[in-house]
Amino acid sequence: MKFIHAADLHLDSPFLGLTGLPTQLAAQVRQSTFAAATKIFDRALAEHVDFVLLAGDLFDRAEQSVAAQAYLFDQFRRLAAAQIPVVISFGNHDYATDQHQLVAYPANVTVFGPDVTTTTLTLKSGETVAISGFSYPQRWVSDDVVAAYPPHAATDWHLGMLHGAVATGGTNDHYAPFTLDDLRQKHYDYWALGHIHHHRLLAENPPIVYAGNPQGRAINETGAKGAYLVTSQGHELVPEFFETAVLAWDTATLTTAATTLVALGQELTDWLTAHPASLPTLTALTITTTRSLAAEEQARLAEWPALFQRTQRTALRAANRYFVRLTVVPPTATLTAPELDQSYWEQGAAQVFTPANVQSVFGKLAQEPSLAAWLDQVTPRDLQQAASRRLNQRVRGENPDVS
Amino acid sequence: MYLKTLTLFGFGQFHDRTFDLTPGLNVLLGPNEAGKSTITQFITAILFGFPTKKHPELRYEPLDGSQFGGSLELVKDANVYRVTRVAGARGGKVTLQNLTTDLTLPATQLPKLLAPVDLALFENVYALNELRLGTVFQASKQVVMDRLRHVGAVGSDFWLAQAQQLDKAADERYKPQGRNPQLNQQLQQHRDLTAKLEKANGAYQEYWRLLQDQETARKRQTTLQHDLAASRQHANDLAQQLQAWPTYQQWQELGQTTTTATTGFTEDDVTAFERVTSQVTAAQSALKADQHRLQNLQSHTQLPKIFQEALKVTPQLTPLLAQLPTMTETEQERARLLAQQRDLEQRTTGIERQYATASGQMPRPFSLATTQQLKQLQDNLALANQKRRRLQQDLNQANEDYRRLQPTRQRRNPLADKQVGWLAAGLVALIGAMFLPGTVFKLVGAALGIVIGYYGVFVVESQTPASRQLQALADDIKDLQAQLREGGQRIDELTDQIDAIGTAHDLGRLPAEQWLAAQAAIGEWERLTQQLDSVHQRLTATAATQQDFQTAVTALLPSLAHQDFREVLHQLNQLQTTQQQLATQDGELAGLTAQLKRDQTALTTAQAAQATFLQTRNVADEAEFYHQYQTIREQGNRAAQCQALATQLGAARLAQLQRTDQATLTQATQTAQATAADQQHQLDTVTTHLATLAGQLTHLTSSGTQATLRQKLANLETTMQATAREWLLDRLTSQWIAATLAAASGDRLPKIVAQAGEFYAQLTENRYTKIELTAETLRVQRADGAWRTVGQLSRGTAEQLDLAVKLAFAVIMQPQAAMPIVIDDGLVNFDADRRQAAYRLLAKLGHHLQIILLTADSAAPTVAQGPTNRVVNLTSE
């Protein structure tokens, strides 16, 4: 038996955290989710796999992408032509709604319903495979869905498909929370997980595997991206990861003692030479300065990253990198507030940098989903540090920082 | 700070009016419409600016056309400032003069002069009227804190400036109600993009709709194709029905004329009869032809007449014919026997005639010895005779020779020259003998011929003339004559002996020389007689056989009756020969004969069959049969035609046609065709629609608009987040500064609350003794210890609470913000006692700060007794 386990295709979803890209790169970015997914389907066809499991988040429902839907139809038809079944459980991003029932996928596609069901495939080799799974009926599934999975069926193999996250015990377990023990108790031969974008073997024997997404879409989705080709070896299923990403993300830090922008630029160029990338890599670099730049250099710091990208295009291309963020962190200093006692500052900070206050200040902006999402990630402490830096700059009569 | 004079150039109902005020309590008395509210608004407007023209009711522009605005003199830090404000942009044109130093200050100095009190704080705390006193309902710690913040940070100008800058920066980045700030613009951009995306996302709905449409259309197409095929089938069917209608009509007509004819026989019978008849005919014609051929053949082969007759009885005749050789043999035998008999009789008769006595008695035959004796005798006699004849001959010869030898006798033998003639004559005799009947004659003839030939050749030739020995001859003659006499005696002797024998055997009549021969004849006769008997017997037998045979033959062949048996045989032989000839020599004739036989048989059979057939069919003769047959055939034809039409139509079609009529059918056909055409049209439409859909889908799928917009939006959101972060940091930093300042001034709040409690007790004549400030609201404690929230207080009591808080605030914050308190009929809801208490409190406070009380209550001036107090009557000039 041989099958492919993929998840979180997030077809046609935009890349996050970009403010602008060169046209060519932008086109590449736009096509990347498709290109990566195509690699999976190509592999399925090349390997003549017995079936393909897609464990949710094939597309972002909210994106309402025509291209994604059309692409899926095309690919499913390709697999149908090769008589390769596809089993899909929709996740929190592509949770099932009526529209999916309106247009039927090709006959080789099995889509799980909102309740845990088991579909059984009979392979060309004569082996039988039971696959259990479900689709999200809405954005959140907080119930203990795993309990509804049946025990190992009387088939040669039994696979579980689950789009969800390991239970934390907190209130945010909205994604079919499970524990590894829950899964193990089912005595399945393989658990094909989705939702987490980093591929990972949560456990072996049986393999409990997050396929990760085939293409990283944000700066926090670094590392190798792809899917698993799972092959039976005796009575075990052995997952083998293969890469599919056409674009990579990377975060890096550079500490420098440079005091001029020229020196800083040189150091950055050197860094690029020392860190070439195999794939076109969207890189976020944090440059920590140990010494303050001269005042006039500080003034130009705002435009400097853009200038660097423009002038050092060759070096960037050679390193196969593009900077999506270039942060220059000034040396840290404690706030020295004139005329006011430090205790008052602390007292003030205690009042101001609270989630409630931040939320209240953010006010109507929180109605903007993207801003609200950003705010969710920001801790008051981060804000206080940033504010502290800002005050320091003011005390020193500097311009606001660049970030 | 206190206000020294108010000069109204033109404001509300006032123009060119000046009020001088004292630093203490000023009671400005006037009834309703005297201009109390106008004064309050005037102070606010001059200090903080005219309200915008959006609120003309608050601007109090003069009705009489005098110059809008006015001035006031205020005393702060021992300096007298004059603030003049007249109509102008942004809250009016301000002129600020330091009258003490006689310097004209920039208008921007005015807020700084008034700081930290701004319009909001002034209106919230220092300018009281009935309406504003209600604000205590919202009075929370935060409100109080906010007010405190304004005044509490006095002395921390740097930080306030920083906070202001931050706020300004923040405002540049984002204002909740703004339009131009960065984030507002970005948000707007976001909305626009979102709108665009939503529009583009319309494509998504459109896509699903199209897919659904496609699905529906495909289904519809399939249905229509199916329907169309059915409709076409139906229409075709109907059209064919219609086409078949004439045929159907024909069928119908035929069906109507077809009457069931009574027949004793079926079509098959006709065929059978035809067959039988044709068999007869065929047999007849075959027979005729064969007969004709036979006649032809007979004319050539001269067939016996009885042949045909015989043919009929061939089977019976055959065994007879088989006997024919026997019979022929018999006949021959008979003939032979008859011939033999005749011969025998003849011979017997001949012999009898020859030998028999007159009485017919036949001589007896010799015994063997007699015979031998006779033979001896005869031989001897013969020899003697011979000798004598030779002698005679010799004598004759000698005589002849003698004569010949004589010259007269010299002549040639005429015969000698005629050798060839002899030969020819012999030959002729020989050949002629061959034609003679009977072997004996033939032999005799032949011998004669030979003898003649011999004679011709040898005798005549050997007769050579002998003349020389004439003399010798005479001698010879004599000798010979002697010898002749001797011989004659011998002969006589012998003859006597023979005669004796002849007499003994009744052979008297015969010459002796014949006796021996007669002996043979007598033996022969006896044998013949015997033979004759035997022949006669055999003849009798033969005759019987022949008689039987003839009887049998006659029975078969009557024509042969009374005919000679030989003729019968001859005929039969001829018949057989003919048969044999036919059988052996001429296959055609034989075959023909056989054929004739068969023909005859066939004809008989066929005729019998025909007769039987007609009989069984109850038909008298062929004509009647054929009449019936004709009828039936016509019927049959009609039925067949009918059947053919029915077949042509088919059972189903026929059934269909029978259920309808032509008009209906035509109508139905047209309808069906119209339906089909309509469906075809629909199908075309659907097909076109599908093509359009496919095109639209391709367009939607290939359009990158959505993705581009989404990425743009994502990018914009990133930018927005960055901006929002900046804005938030600015705001939070500003807040932080404010909070820090508030913390620094935070210890004043308990003092204010305590002071307010004290004032409240005085105002309520100690009915309430304590105020507590909670995070949410204020609450008060009654003298009996019970707590009341603001909401539980009566309106007047609540207003008293607000007044107490505000007064306390003004008093406590006086070092930082000295501002006159302007009360515009704020105590109307107070009962008389509490109003008096309020007056008393105000009078007391007037020692510390300027209070301008505008009231219609004429009892008020009574509290304003004192050096620092003043009463101004608004209605008096």
Automatic annotation (TrEMBL), chain A:
InterPro entries in UniProt: Calcineurin-like_PHP, DNA_Repair-Maintenance_Comp, Metallo-depent_PP-like, Mre11_N, Pesterase_YhaO
CDD domains on file: MPP_Mre11_N (cd00840)
Residues annotated as domain Calcineurin-like phosphoesterase: 1-198
Domain of life per record: Bacteria
Keywords annotated in UniProt: Hydrolase
Membrane-spanning segments: none
Protein name: Phosphoesterase
Species per Swiss-Prot/TrEMBL record: Levilactobacillus zymae
Automatic annotation (TrEMBL), chain B:
Domain YhaN AAA: 1-201
Coiled coil: 327-401, 470-497
Signal peptide start-end: none
Keywords associated with the record: Coiled coil, Membrane, Transmembrane, Transmembrane helix
Listed Pfam families: AAA_27
UniProt keyword annotation of Coiled coil present: yes
TM stretches of this protein: 419-436, 443-460
Keyword Transmembrane helix among record annotations: yes
Gene3D superfamilies found in the cross-reference section: P-loop containing nucleotide triphosphate hydrolases (3.40.50.300)
Domain of life: Bacteria
Name of the protein: Membrane protein
Source species of the chain: Levilactobacillus zymae
